[in-house]
Amino acid sequence: MPVNYAIGQTSMTDTRRLYQQTADRVRQLIAKGDHQAGARLPAERELAQQLGVSRPSLREALIALEIDGTIEIRMGSGIYVLNTAKPAGNGRSLGESPSELMQARAVIESAIIVQAAATMTEETLATLRATLEAMADDIANTRKPIEQDRAFHLIIAESTGNTLLAEIVENLFDERHSPLSAGIRGHFETADSWTAALTEHHAILAALEARDPLAAQAAMHSHLTASGRRWLEN
Amino acid sequence: MPVNYAIGQTSMTDTRRLYQQTADRVRQLIAKGDHQAGARLPAERELAQQLGVSRPSLREALIALEIDGTIEIRMGSGIYVLNTAKPAGNGRSLGESPSELMQARAVIESAIIVQAAATMTEETLATLRATLEAMADDIANTRKPIEQDRAFHLIIAESTGNTLLAEIVENLFDERHSPLSAGIRGHFETADSWTAALTEHHAILAALEARDPLAAQAAMHSHLTASGRRWLEN
DNA sequence: TGCGCCATTTGGTCAAGCCAATTTGCAGAT
DNA sequence: ATCTGCAAATTGGCTTGACCAAATGGCGCA
After folding, report:
1. Alpha carbon of A182: minimum distance to chain B alpha carbons (Å)
2. Contacts of A67 in chain B (CB under 8 A)
3. Is the model's pTM score more than 0.80?
4. Do A162 and B68 touch (CB under 8 A)?
5. ipTM for the whole complex
6. Among candidates B206, B199, B222, which has minimal Cα distance to B135?
7. Whether A41 contacts A71, CB under 8 Å
8. CB-based contacts of A160: which residues, under 8 Å, 6+ apart?
C-alpha cells in the first residue's frame, strides 16, 4: 500500500509529504478535543494504524510535532500533548498568516524608513539604485529577483544603524520564502507582480532621494500592502 | 546494532534521541565546509552508512533539519543545503547595546500603537487600566512590576490582532530581562524609575482612551526613549 | 544535431522485528 | 490490610530489507 491512502481529513490531492499530512491530522486530533491538556495520545503502533500510515511515517510526523512544541515524547511512557494554552504565540507552524506577515512588515518597515530617511547618505542611495538596476535585469531575463528585493529592504533597515531592526526586517522577509510557508505559497512570483514591485521600489527610492520621510513612509506602506495583496491573489 | 554507536563527533554519553544527535552531526558537516552553499549532500543511503545510522533514523534527522530551514529535500533529486548565510539572524546572540534595543522598541511599538489606537476597544482599555493598578500595587509593596510592565506593552501589541507583531514586541521586551543581557544590566529597577514608568504608562493610556493615535505614538516613543535613558544611567 | 525513451539514481513509504525504558500488577513480606 | 519488590506487559527507539515513485541522465534513433 504505497500510494497516498488519504484517510480522514487529508485531501486526496494533497501532494505534501506524508509526515506533514500526518502531523496536521494529529494536530486536528488534538484540536478536536479528543485529546487535550496534558493527555496521552494512543501508542505509536495504535495511532499509526488508526491513521492508516506506517509507524516510521508516524514517527516522522511526531518529530515535527515535537519540534514545534505541540507534543512531548517520553521514552517507554507515551506521547503527551503539551500546553495548548499559548501555542499561538510560538506555533508559527501553520496557522498561516500571509496577510498578517505583510501587515507586520508594512507597519514596521514604514516606521523604519522614517528613521532611515533622516540619515540617508548618498552612498546608500547609490547602493539602492544598483539593486533596482539588478532587479530590472533579473526581470528582463525572466529570473526571480528575490535577492534584489531582499537587499533593497535590508539596506534600508541597515541604514538606520540599528542591527536589531535590520534583523527583524530580515527575518520577516525570509519568513515569506522559508520552507515553513511553502505549503501556503503558490507561485505568486509572476513577471507582472515583479514589475509592479519594481515600480514601487522606484517610488520609495525617489522619496528617499528627496529626503522626504513622510513620502517614503507612505510609499513603503503602499508597496508592502500592494505586495501582500498580490501574494494573496496568486 | 541497537545501542548508541556514537561514531564521529557525538559524545558517547549523549543521551538524546538519535535523530537529534544525527541532525547535529549533519549540521557540523555543513558548517565544516565539506558541503555548503546550495550544494547537494550525499544520498540518504550513503549518508546514513557514512554516519553509522539507519536510513529511517537519518530521515528523522533530515526532517528536523528541513523544519529549521537548514536543508531542502527534493524528491527524486537529493538533499540540498539551504542559505547557510544567516544563522546569526535567528541565533539571537544579541550582545548588542541596550540603547539599540530600546531604540528598536521605540520605533516599532510607536508604529504599532498607531494601529492599536484605531481599533482600541473599551474592554482592552479596561485590561490596560487593571495592569496599571497592579503595577502601582507592586511598586507600593516594593515588588518589581516587571510582569505588569510586560503585560501593558503586550496587550497593546496584541490588540492589533496581528500575532506576528505581538510576537516581536514580546521578544524585544524579554530580550532586556533575559539572562543574555544580565551581564549588562545592573539593577536599574529602582522605585523611582518604576514610578516614572508608571506615569508614562498612564500618559499612553490617556491617549488611547482619547483615541488619539498621534498622541499615543508620541507618548509611547517618549516612554521607551526615557526608559532606555534610565536603564543606561543605572 | 536534436529529441525522446528508458535505465539509473534518489527520495518516499511500508513491513516486521528486536532492544531499552517505563509502567503495571501481582506475589510475598510485614 | 498494606507495603514492597520484582517480573511481565506496554511503549518508545532503532535496524534491516524491500518496493514504489519522482528526477535525472545517457544513449540511440531520427
Report:
1. 11
2. 64, 67-68
3. no
4. no
5. 0.54
6. B199
7. yes
8. A112, A115, A116, A119, A166, B107
